[in-house]
């Protein structure tokens, strides 16, 4: 998949043509990890939408990649069905179909902006191909290539974030991370964990403290598993232990990912990131946010405007299907929170390390790569 020196041991999502005009999106079902390593083979955009909504695939960058593959899959499937019925399909009909698929996918997870970025990018490619007078088959090929390009760029961005972020890690450091912003959240070596892998790969000794990350336990289930696969030493802690270890001076830096970053540098990330950031601020521990430019939403001036996904109560009232709370209890379950930019020491993107004030730097460095190169 990439031209670099080391590949992640986990593979999240990829595309395959079966040779008969049928396409399959393969995906590691992260909702079953670490107990079961199961791969899904998706052939319909409805299945792709269900997989995103149910956290079978999760983490902002790979949600974007999956949306790209889902849209390419939708076109291939649509054309194959119409062919089987001996119906001609115009590019305009494909464009209309993709508008519906974009809506379907766009309803799955409101906070991760990579989802909308990828949907818009695929729709822009469609428009341009239609304007250029391409045939329906050619349009399907263009969309497949665009989806692959999104994945390739993700791999490259992860690598660059790793290179830049590793500069912030000293030999012997212990890093705290929250949720999973590793290879499982991307098609490459991750965002927040990319600097850790890069530092370890270049001979630095790094230890990672992993917040379990209630309610869905991405830290305990995914980050702990992923770091084990990659041979990086780790200590799993519950979320409410982070302050204890910071006070004991056991943590030298915090690395987290992001689901959406507003123009002023406010960061939406997994619920609990804000609490970690406040603790880090009090203990004067640097907090680094590592995310590709596709996670930056320059249309939003501040984090106040970021939509926060509210998920179902069962994620809080149950653990692995076992009820842990009394029946009929009132529950709140926001999946993300916003960390104000004042608590963010630096934002690391594939374009380098950026520090406050963020607005101009993010705009200058990230704006060009958020646009489609063919524009
Ligand atoms: C590189 S992933 C960055 C974020 O997407 C990650 O930290 C996170 O919050 C994921 O949340 P999730 O609900 O598991 O999709």
Task: Briefly summarize what is shown.
Its EC number is 5.3.1.23. The protein has helices at residues 45-53, 60-84, 91-106, 113-131, 136-166, 194-201, 218-230, 242-247, 273-282, 314-317, 358-370; strands at 13-17, 23-28, 39-42, 174-177, 207-211, 234-237, 253-256, 260-262, 267-270, 287-290, 296-297, 318-319, 322-323, 336-339, 346-349, 352-354.
List the topology elements.
Layout: E1 13-17, E2 23-28, E3 39-42, H1 45-53, H2 60-84, H3 91-106, H4 113-131, H5 136-166, E4 174-177, H6 194-201, E5 207-211, H7 218-230, E6 234-237, H8 242-247, E7 253-256, E8 260-262, E9 267-270, H9 273-282, E10 287-290, E11 296-297, H10 314-317, E12 318-319, E13 322-323, E14 336-339, E15 346-349, E16 352-354, H11 358-370
Parallel strand pairs: 4-5, 4-7, 5-6, 7-10, 8-11, 10-15
Antiparallel strand pairs: 1-2, 2-3, 8-9, 9-14, 12-13, 15-16
Helix pairs in contact: 1-2, 2-3, 2-4, 2-5, 3-4, 4-5, 5-6
Q: Could you walk me through the main structural features you see in this protein, from its secondary elements to its overall organization?
A:
With 375 residues, the protein is α/β, with parallel strands linked by helices. The chain has 2 domains: 13-158, Up-down Bundle (Four Helix Bundle (Hemerythrin (Met), subunit A)), CATH 1.20.120.420; 161-370, Rossmann fold, CATH 3.40.50.10470. It has 11 helices and 16 strands. The chain has helices spanning 45-53, 60-84, 91-106, 113-131, 136-166, 194-201, 218-230, 242-247, 273-282, 314-317, 358-370, and strands at 13-17, 23-28, 39-42, 174-177, 207-211, 234-237, 253-256, 260-262, 267-270, 287-290, 296-297, 318-319, 322-323, 336-339, 346-349, 352-354. A 7-stranded mixed sheet has the order 6-5-4-7-10-15-16, sandwiched between helices. A 4-stranded mixed sheet has the order 11-8-9-14. A hairpin with a 5-residue loop joins strand 1 (13-17) and strand 2 (23-28). The protein is globular. The two termini are 27 Å apart. The mean pLDDT is 94. Bound molecules: 5-S-methyl-1-O-phosphono-5-thio-D-ribulose. 5-S-methyl-1-O-phosphono-5-thio-D-ribulose (MRU) is lined by residues 55, 58-61, 112, 179, 181, 185-186, 191, 218, 257-259, 269-270, 335. 5-S-methyl-1-O-phosphono-5-thio-D-ribulose binds next to helix 2 and strand 9. This is Methylthioribose-1-phosphate isomerase. GO terms for molecular function: S-methyl-5-thioribose-1-phosphate isomerase activity. Belongs to the EIF-2B alpha/beta/delta subunits family. MtnA subfamily.
């Amino acid at each position: 998949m990439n031209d670099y020196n080391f590949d992640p041991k986990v593979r999240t999502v990829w595309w395959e043509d079966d040779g008969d005009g049928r396409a399959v999106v393969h995906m590691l079902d992260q909702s079953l990890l670490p107990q079961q390593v199961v791969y899904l083979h998706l052939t319909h955009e409805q299945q792709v939408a269900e997989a995103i909504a149910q956290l079978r695939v999760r983490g902002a960058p790979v949600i974007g990649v999956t949306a790209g593959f889902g849209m390419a899959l939708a076109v291939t499937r649509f054309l194959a069905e119409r062919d089987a019925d001996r119906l001609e399909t115009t590019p305009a009909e494909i464009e209309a179909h993709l508008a519906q698929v974009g809506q379907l996918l766009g309803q799955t997870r409101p906070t991760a902006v990579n989802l909308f970025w990828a949907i818009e990018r695929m729709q822009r490619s469609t428009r341009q191909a239609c304007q250029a007078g391409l045939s329906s088959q050619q349009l399907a090929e263009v969309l497949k290539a665009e989806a692959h390009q999104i994945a390739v760029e993700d791999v490259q961005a992860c690598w660059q974030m790793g290179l830049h972020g590793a500069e912030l890690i000293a030999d012997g450091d212990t890093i705290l991370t929250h949720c999973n912003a590793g290879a499982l959240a991307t098609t490459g070596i991750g965002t927040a964990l990319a600097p850790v892998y890069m530092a370890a790969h270049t001979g630095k000794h790094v230890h990672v403290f992993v917040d379990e990350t209630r309610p869905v336990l991405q830290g305990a289930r995914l980050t702990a598993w992923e770091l084990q696969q990659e041979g990086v030493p780790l200590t799993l802690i519950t979320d409410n232990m982070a302050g204890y270890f910071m006070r004991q001076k056991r943590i030298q830096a915090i690395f987290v990912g992001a689901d959406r970053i507003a123009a002023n540098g406010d960061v939406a990330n997994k619920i609990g990131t804000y609490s970690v950031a406040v603790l880090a601020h009090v203990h004067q521990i640097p907090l680094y946010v590592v995310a590709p430019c596709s996670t930056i939403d320059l249309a939003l001036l501040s984090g106040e405007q970021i939509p926060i996904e509210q998920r179902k109560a069962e994620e809080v009232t149950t653990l692995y299907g076992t009820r842990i709370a009394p029946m009929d209890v009132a529950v709140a379950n926001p999946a993300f929170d916003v960390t104000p930019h004042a608590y963010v020491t630096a934002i690391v993107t594939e374009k380098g390390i950026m520090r406050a004030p963020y607005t101009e730097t993010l705009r200058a460095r990230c704006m060009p790569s958020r646009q489609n190169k063919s524009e």
